[in-house]
């Protein structure tokens, strides 16, 4: 069996999130076909796959009597995190390591430059769990948890 996430399901999900963010409305599958560049059969198959995910990616799919999908509801937070529109602990950890690397590049003091590089290297490898924990704390704090 071929892997479908990267070539079919993720592009459809990304399109759903992008269109909803831009318009604030639910959409017809034909709109997803136009925006994603995928065929109608591929979009329909992706929507069926996305519908069965738990937690759900899409709030609701409306079907015709024939079983075809007639309307695609709003994307969920799970969908937004999957396409990178909302942060995850891992994505925040990646941004932290990247920011430390960039700060090290700009730093003129050799001692500070060394500490920044070491910290980035640690959080990007052996300290990855700590960096992810920091990311989770940041997300929880932003959500008021």
Kindly describe this structure.
- With 145 residues, the chain is mainly α.
- The chain folds into two domains: 5-83, Orthogonal Bundle (Arc Repressor Mutant, subunit A); 89-142.
- 65% of the residues lie in helices and 5% in strands.
- It is built from seven helices and two strands.
- The protein has helices spanning 5-23, 29-36, 40-51, 77-83, 89-106, 110-124, 128-142, and strands at residues 61-63, 69-72.
- Strands 1-2 form a two-stranded antiparallel ribbon.
- A hairpin with a 5-residue loop joins strand 1 (61-63) and strand 2 (69-72).
- Helix 5 (89-106) packs across helix 7.
- The model has no long low-confidence stretch (mean pLDDT 88).
- Span between termini: 41 Å
Tell the overall outline: elongated
Q: From the 3D coordinates, which CATH architecture of the largest domain would you assign?
A: Orthogonal Bundle
Q: Main sheet?
A: 2 strands, antiparallel
Structural class: mainly alpha
Q: Kindly state the number of beta strands.
A: 2
How helix-rich are the residues, as a percent range? 55-70%
List keywords for this structure.
single chain, 145 residues, mainly alpha, Arc Repressor Mutant, subunit A, two-stranded antiparallel ribbon, 2 strands, elongated
Helix and strand topology:
Elements lengths: L4 H19 L5 H8 L3 H12 L9 E3 L5 E4 L4 H7 L5 H18 L3 H15 L3 H15 L3
Antiparallel strand pairs: 1-2
Helix pairs in contact: 1-2, 1-3, 1-4, 5-6, 5-7
């Amino acid at each position: 069996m071929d892997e479908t996430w990267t070539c079919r399901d993720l592009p459809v999900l990304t399109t759903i999130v992008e269109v909803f963010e831009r318009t604030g409305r639910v959409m017809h599958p034909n709109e997803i076909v136009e925006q994603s560049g995928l065929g109608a059969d591929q979009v329909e198959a992706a929507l069926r796959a996305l519908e069965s995910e738990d937690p759900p990616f899409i709030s609701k799919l409306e079907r015709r009597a024939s079983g075809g999908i007639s309307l695609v509801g709003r994307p969920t937070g799970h969908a937004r995190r999957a396409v990178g529109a909302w942060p995850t602990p891992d994505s925040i950890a990646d941004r932290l390591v990247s920011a430390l690397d960039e700060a090290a590049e700009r730093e003129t003091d050799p001692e500070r430059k060394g500490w920044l590089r070491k910290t980035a290297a640690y959080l990007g490898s052996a300290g990855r769990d700590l960096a992810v924990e920091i990311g989770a704390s940041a997300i929880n704090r932003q959500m008021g948890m």
